[in-house]
Amino acid sequence: MRRKIFNVRVIDVVNRQAIENGTVVFDESGIIEISQGTSGTETADWEFDGTGMTLLPGLIDSHVHLGMNASPDPFQQIKADSEADTAFLACSQGRQFLSAGITTVRNVGTRYNVDIVYRQAVERGLIEGPRVYASGQPIVMTGGHCHPMAIEADGADEVRKAARRQLKAGADLLKLMATGGVLTTGTDPGSAQLSEWEMKCACEEADHAGKTTAAHAIGLDGIKNAIRAGVTTIEHGSVLDEEAIQMMLERGTYLVPTLIAATLILRQPPDSGIPEDFIRKAEPFVQRHRESFRDALRSGVKMAAGTDAGTPFNTPGLLADELQLMHEEGMAAIDAIHAATLSAATFMKLDDRIGSIEVGKWADLLLVEGNPLSDLLHLKQVRQVYKGGLLCAHHP
């Protein structure tokens, strides 16, 4: 069916501007026409007056964990869940992402490689869900961060074999743990884990297969190890100094800051059930994390937006809240939207298909009430969500 949305504000993330009173025509084959005015030249089977609304590309959450339930201690849940439990939860979460206007997720860690199988089920049309860019199980050192869901590997040869195993399983990217983390008992978020050489071996295997890499990295030493190893993205990047930022600029390394993850942990009341150890480990990094984000932003480090959905109280669909935090720390609203659309699509090598409203691209679209350029939380006022030109969520 050919659809037309007219008299709507259209967010042009390529030129980082808005087209007022725009018209967009699209169908299942892609975006057919973009024009200014109330009619356009193309006819349509269905027309919708978008007065007072904004149309933008479907959002991309660059850091999620399908199958992690956002409970106070999600790794306890992961240890207990069967493969089927994990798959059913991923299906439910996928619908939540779509309902929030998130048409693509980059999944950076799920037990049993369920995210890869889930991606395949969505692509085959067996279930409805967002586009999934999947890592499957992360690669960690023995006892390393996220080990309940991961492949444990020590030394270059084991890491290389684990990387090849994940690529064989169908991973779109490889997820590596460069430091400890808040949610894994017995690990220190600031301590380095996989070495530079171990991660370099994984990055080489990903490069050979035309894939990308992501490194969980909170502490400075681990961040620098990951950058030198050649990862595509630094996840969190809580402690950055001038040298680390310069390294990222020189190598084109992206930052996915996930400011909301630790913020949500520390916002909970004392009786929330979050283990005291998690709070103790998160507290020293929250303010430093924001300072690092501001320093990276001022320096021009490339960024994409992600939430770390699945961590405590971090339910699917909070990407607008993450963008608002990025905005509060100095990022312009249009740049925050760019980080959740075209920037993410670019580092995932999907920018020829998604991430912007351009003729010929897939019609992944989000229609919201109001103007997110004046208030990013208007992104939560979802009216319609399209994936591949098909209406997949509608909120009257």
Q: Could you characterize the architecture of this molecule?
A:
This protein is of the alpha/beta class. The protein has two domains: 3-57 and 355-394, Urease, subunit C, domain 1, CATH 2.30.40; 59-347, TIM Barrel. Helices cover 35% and strands 23% of the residues. It has twelve helices and 17 strands. The strands form four sheets. Strands 1, 2, 3, 4, 5, 15, 16 and 17 form an eight-stranded mixed β-sheet that branches. It has a four-stranded parallel β-sheet with strand order 11-12-13-14. Helix 5 (196-208) links the parallel strand 11 and strand 12 (212-217). Helix 5 packs parallel to helix 6, helix 6 (220-229) packs parallel to helix 7 and helix 8 packs antiparallel against helix 9. The two termini are 20 Å apart. InterPro entries: Amidohydro-rel, Metal-dep_hydrolase_composite, Metal_Hydrolase, Metallo-dep_Hydrolase, OTAase-like. Residues 54-389 form the Amidohydrolase-related domain. It comes from Brevibacillus ruminantium. This is Amidohydrolase family protein.
